[in-house]
Write a structure and sequence with these properties.
Layout: E1 26-31, H1 37-48, E2 51-53, H2 55-60, H3 69-79, H4 86-90, H5 93-112, E3 115-118, H6 123-128, E4 133-139, H7 143-150, H8 162-181, E5 196-199, H9 200-216
Parallel strand pairs: 1-3, 1-4, 2-3, 4-5
Length: about 220
């Protein structure tokens, strides 16, 4: 039976109705490949006046590990075409070293102040470190548009066959799936597990960034 909200009784004093959103210390952003996640996250941080971190920026915080983007890229080739369990990855010495470096970098980033972190850490890990956190996911469903976006990357700009580009898009997402499994009990991309899920086909780059920025600078 439908309820008429105009005649509903007062909810005053009922705790479950009175939750108040507070600005989070950190937003963790996952993004499907070609959903413009990194660009949205970076733009949102500029609008909100908070720091932005992704794999490259995080590694710059821990030079003592001697790890570079090339090291991450080399390892991620292993993650492109095969599904791994979190346990399998955590038992891999190379993965363990990368994770140790990223975890140390995340500690440094969180201590610096409010921030958005793209991939490399899960919401529950941030909360376990003693910080408030909101999780977000950007995704897109228009494959034709994703193919066009993929071809702006050096990885796919010279790939003429659309099917090969689609295969690459799925492989890029598989990398993200594998990383996430090693850090969370949730499944990467399951929209029910995120606080915010944005279809960037609908909201676009600028408005998606505006939405995330508003969350990060909420009073």
């Amino acid at each position: 039976m439908a309820e008429d909200v105009r005649t509903m009784g007062s909810t005053k004093g009922i705790r479950e109705f009175e939750g108040v959103f507070e600005k989070p210390h950190c937003m963790v952003l996952d993004s499907a490949y070609c959903s413009m996640g990194r660009m949205i996250g970076f733009k949102a941080c500029k609008e909100a006046g908070v720091d932005y971190y992704d794999a490259m920026v995080l590694l710059e915080l821990v030079p003592e590990y001697g790890l570079t983007k090339d090291d991450v890229d080399a390892y991620e080739k292993k993650l492109r075409n095969e599904s791994f369990t979190g346990e399998q990855l955590r038992s891999d010495p190379v993965f363990a070293k990368l994770t140790e470096a990223f975890d140390k970098a995340v500690d440094i980033a969180l201590a610096k102040g409010p921030c958005l972190i793209h991939d490399r850490v899960a919401k529950e890990e941030v909360i376990a470190k003693g910080y408030s956190c909101v999780s977000a996911m950007t995704y897109a469903v228009d494959m034709k548009a994703k193919i066009v976006k993929a071809r702006t990357s050096p990885l796919y700009k010279d790939v003429k066959d659309d099917e090969a580009v689609v295969k690459g898009i799925h492989e890029e997402d598989q990398i993200r799936i594998n990383w996430h499994r090693a850090h969370s009990d949730t499944e990467w991309g399951d929209l029910n597990t995120y606080d915010i899920a944005l279809n960037t086909d609908v909201f676009g780059l600028d408005y998606s960034a505006k939405i995330l920025a508003e969350v990060m600078k909420a009073e």
